Amino acid sequence: xxxxxxxxxxxxxxxxxxxxxxxxxxxxxxxxxxxxxxxxxxxxxxxxxxxxxxxxxxxxxxxxxxxxxxxxxxxxxxxxxxxxxxxxxxxxxxxxxxxxxxxxxxxxxxxxxxxxxxxxxxxxxxxxxxxxxxxxxxxxxxxxxxxxxxxxxxxxxxxxxxxxxxxxxxxxxxxxxxxxxxxxxxxxxxxxxxxxxxxxxxxxxxxxxxxxxxxxxxxxxxxxxxxxxxxxxxxxxxxxxxxxxxxxxxxxxxxxxxxxxxxxxxxxxxxxxxxxxxxxxxxxxxxxxxxxxxxxxxxxxxxxxxxxxxxxxxxxxxxxxxxxxxxxxxxxxxxxxxxxxxxxxxxxxxxxxxxxxxxxxxxxxxxxxxxxxxxxxxxxxxxxxxxxxxxxxxxxxxxxxxxxxxxxxxxxxxxxxxxxxxxxxxxxxxxxxxxxxxxxxxxxxxx
Length: 447
Description:
Blueprint: H1 16-28, H2 31-56, H3 59-66, E1 70-71, H4 72-104, H5 117-128, H6 148-164, H7 169-183, H8 189-196, H9 208-231, H10 235-240, H11 243-257, H12 272-284, H13 287-295, H14 317-329, H15 332-345, H16 347-352, H17 354-365, H18 385-400, E2 432-433
Parallel strand pairs: 1-2
Helix pairs in contact: 2-3, 2-4, 4-5, 4-6, 4-8, 5-6, 7-8, 9-11, 9-12, 12-17, 13-14, 15-18
């Protein structure tokens, strides 16, 4: 549930110990932390190999002892790790301090200066990690008697946390590096390497052309869903909510559909066309980020010369289309079988709530967590044990579908000499070598 966001019971009614464990588990299983782990391991592996070179008395070992050996990639990995961890902490802390005073001014459950601390922290954390498990209802209509300014201030913060934790994380990370690069009076080789050959260092940092493509696709999907949901708006929402609230409903759910799965109100009254639109967007989910990751993957042995100059990656939009088609069509047969099994085990519900079941299935595959149930828990919470088991398999497959088909060079722990490296009798000072740039006559220690 911490990766999906849907719960078989009302998360608001659970004990504090359960809530604490779920939040800690969610934070430790964060995509940012999991993708940053290889950076730590690669730096440790490099230090281990340098000690090996010094023990063997090789040319590189002597250069390291004399202080004549400098690596760009090793420094780049260290700086990138610091940026990622700072981003991870500062975004959540900033979100918490923006939500806390707003929640304290509300009325009802989880309010007050002290009583709103834990619900605000949970909301900021789960929005950033895209789980959607919250302890409070977001301010939307007038039933909670909240001032309108709280809604206008809180919902943009929640939406921003949702985007920065998932779909827009690669965009934000490259933007940070670009700003740091522009502010540097002297060119920093480490940041320059991260900008010109980012996929060699990190799975979620893309070249400029791939970042622009991801930005365009993200905006296009947002506009598509806004227009589709506006056209398919149900009569119930038109009758019960004024125009301003309906616009808020549309743009917020457009942001939350592909990631967080947080709903502002009861979705059981959605028009079937609007439910279909949201199901399609949940099925798409993080596909653009995964496609950008796979299409920008560098070769296993990058072509570096002895000076550390790197080959510029060429734009290949044909490959992106192929990867997108392949990614969207992956596991289709297995998904059809699993959906058939769910329909068979939940035959009674399928006759009356077929749209709800499609919605729940797409939400599980996209790990969104959004549900059409009017209750405080997911629609799948009323399913049989076999139905829940099949849905858990779908959730697990959806969680793992973003993994690369093979070991990505940015997470490889062993260092191999590039093909074009020529043996050199000595290493000159201030020669910017990548972390793997060893001569062919030097055999690295096994990791």
